[in-house]
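Objective 1b of the project was to move from sequence-level analysis to a structural picture of ligand recognition. The entry below was assembled by the postdoctoral researcher (A.K.) and checked by the PI before modelling. It contains the amino acid sequence of the target and the SMILES of the bound compound, zinc ion.
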Amino acid sequence: MRVISLGSGSSGNAVLIEAGPNGRTRLLVDAGLPCRTLINRLHLAGVSPAQILAVLLTHEHNDHTLALPTLLKRYDPLVISDPATLAALVDNSRPEFQATAGSQVDAEQPLSLGLREKRPAARQGQHRACAERVTTSLPLRRTLALSAGSSCLLGDVEIVSFPVPHDAAAPCGYLLSAGGCRVCVVVDSGSVTPIMLEAMRQADLLILEANHDRERLLRGPYTYALKMRILSPTGHLSNEQAAQAILQTWRTDGLRWIWLAHLSQVNNTPQLALRSVQRHLLEAGAALQQVHLAPLPRTMGPAWDSTRLWHDEHWWRYETLTEI
Ligand SMILES: [Zn+2]
Ligand SMILES: [Zn+2]
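Corresponding predicted holo structure:
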């Protein structure tokens, strides 16, 4: 598997996943950048947007879906998300696009791409008010409603979605497996649940939100209401919460890579997030040499290539150092 962060933070999120021979299965987890930026960064990664098989959405907020309307109009990738997220996107679309929405791919019907529903499960929670802006004008044509808690196979990648607590319609994280490697993506989430920990524990590469430093947020310029929203159990994870989640999923059976994601521009810095998480891990007695920690930049981030890791330790160390 090859994984590249195309952008991370409140200003936009997208992760490129490639798996299979010659990286033939190409997915995006979220598409929350301006479309031109997203396409430019895909090209920098050597990928044409037309090669993107599907976009997996964690939730409908704008910083995760901004590029979707243009991407759909030009390239029409499959959109995979919880049905409530799809509904929220359609609800917030301009009327002229709502007519084209809803021709969903039935998850129970096998697709030519080798997609099949494996384990349907109950949907998480009720709809909640969306406090962040959501994307408008969405020409959804090909969608796969994958309920949070379900899994499917898409090309070379097994996709497991799991619910996370956040103030969106049906927010989820993803555990993606291919070629014996697993990548777990947990972004916007106000708290950590046992089902999230179970998914994180399995990951060789964990992309985990470390949104803010709690003290910096409390002292900072945000309104009281916004501070309370971010700190709530359905807001965003702090550096300390991220560290606690890492400790709760600590593995002693090998190296693990952890990218700290969705850093706030106002209430965090890459250096602060890294030092804070490292300090909490050290205070708990964790052996830091067992994890490769790197904060993700707002711009194009590091690449993780499972086929190179076993041969080229220096390559990874260089990537890590350049991000700090
Ligand atoms: Zn959000
Ligand atoms: Zn977000």
